[in-house]
Task: structure prediction
Amino acid sequence: MARTVEQIERDMAVLQEATDAIASEFHNTYNQYLAALEQAMRQQLIQAIYYLCTQAYPEAFLSLPVDARQKLQQNLLQLARKAQTQLLLHLEPRPIETAANSVPTTNLEDIAKWQEQLESAISETLISVSCDINSLLQETGILPNKFPPAVLEAAVKTEPSAQPVGGRPNIIKLAIEIANDDIEMPEFPTIQNSNITPIVAIHLRLSEIEFADSTVMAFRNQIRNLNAQFTTLRREFQKKQRERTVADAQAAWRACWYEE
Result:
C-alpha cells in the first residue's frame, strides 16, 4: 500500500533532525581536528626546516652570521604561527550567507559543499605556508637564489614532478632547470654538465602530517566515520524525496481525474 504524503513528511522531518545533528557533529569534530592539526603542523614544519638547514644545506646555514641565523629562526616561527591562526580561522562561526565556513543546517548538499570548501582551504593553507617558508629560505640564502621564487612556488604547487626525500616527511626534492651552476648538497650529488639542478624544499602534506601524529589521525578517522554516516543519510534523504515526489504526483492525478 502506497504511503501518504503526511507519512513521508514525518519521515523526512526525522531525517532533517538527523541532518542538523550530523552538521553539529561535523563542526565539533573539525574544531578538534584543526586544533590538533595546527599544533602538529607547527612541530613538523620546524622539524622539516631543521633538516633543510642542518643536513640538506648545512654550508649555507653555517655561512650566516649568528644574528642572521636568529632572525631567520624568528621569522620562520612567525610564519608558522600565522599558518596556525589561518587553520583555526577556517572554522570560525559566521552567518551562512556571508561565509561558507559555517556549518549550514539547511540541507545535506550544503553540508557537502561546506566540507569540500573547508578541506580545500586546509590544503591551500599548507601550500601557502610551504611557499612562504621556501621564499624566506631563498631570500636568506639557504636555498639557491639563482632562479625566481615563482619558479620554486610553481614547482611546489605542481607536486607530481617532486619526489619525497627518503623517509623525511614534508620535504621534497625538485629538479629545476637553471643556469649552469653546480650546487653542492651532501645527500644529493651535483648533476654535472646539465641545466637541471636538484633542489630540496619544504612541502607540507596533509597526509604526512596526519600519519605522523596519532591525535590528528584519530580525528581524521572520526571524520571518515561521519562521512560514512553522511553518505547513508543522504541516500535515505534522496530516497524519501523521490517517494514524496511520486506521492505528490499520484495525489495530483487523483485530484484532477474524472470519468465521463
Remarks:
- Strands lie at 163-165, 168-177, 196-202.
- Residues 94-100 have pLDDT under 50 and may be disordered.
- The two ends are 27 Å apart (CA to CA).
